[in-house]
């Protein structure tokens, strides 16, 4: 797992795609305990990254909508 980029550097799509891979690997099983725990921890970090990026996008959209309501001619 150390050859993977830091979660904080990933864009939404890459984080989401890697999270899908993590879930699949955990569902298939066959991993040792340490590897499973490390993979689960990576998945948790990826999920949090995705949530944060979605929240940021939501905030930006809400701000733009509020601007449009204040100044409909803009």
UniProtKB/TrEMBL annotation:
Its main location: cytoplasm. Its EC number is 3.1.11.6. GO terms for molecular function: exodeoxyribonuclease VII activity. This is Exodeoxyribonuclease 7 small subunit. Bidirectionally degrades single-stranded DNA into large acid-insoluble oligonucleotides, which are then degraded further into small acid-soluble oligonucleotides. It comes from the Bacteria. Keywords: Cytoplasm, Exonuclease, Hydrolase, Nuclease. NCBIfam families: PRK00977.1-3, xseB. It catalyses: Exonucleolytic cleavage in either 5'- to 3'- or 3'- to 5'-direction to yield nucleoside 5'-phosphates. It is found in: Cytoplasm. Pfam families: Exonuc_VII_S. Signal peptide: none annotated. Transmembrane segments: none annotated. Belongs to the XseB family. It is an enzyme of class 3 (hydrolase). InterPro entries: Exonuc_VII_S (IPR003761), Exonuc_VII_ssu_sf (IPR037004). Gene3D superfamilies: Exonuclease VII, small subunit. Heterooligomer composed of large and small subunits. The gene is xseB.
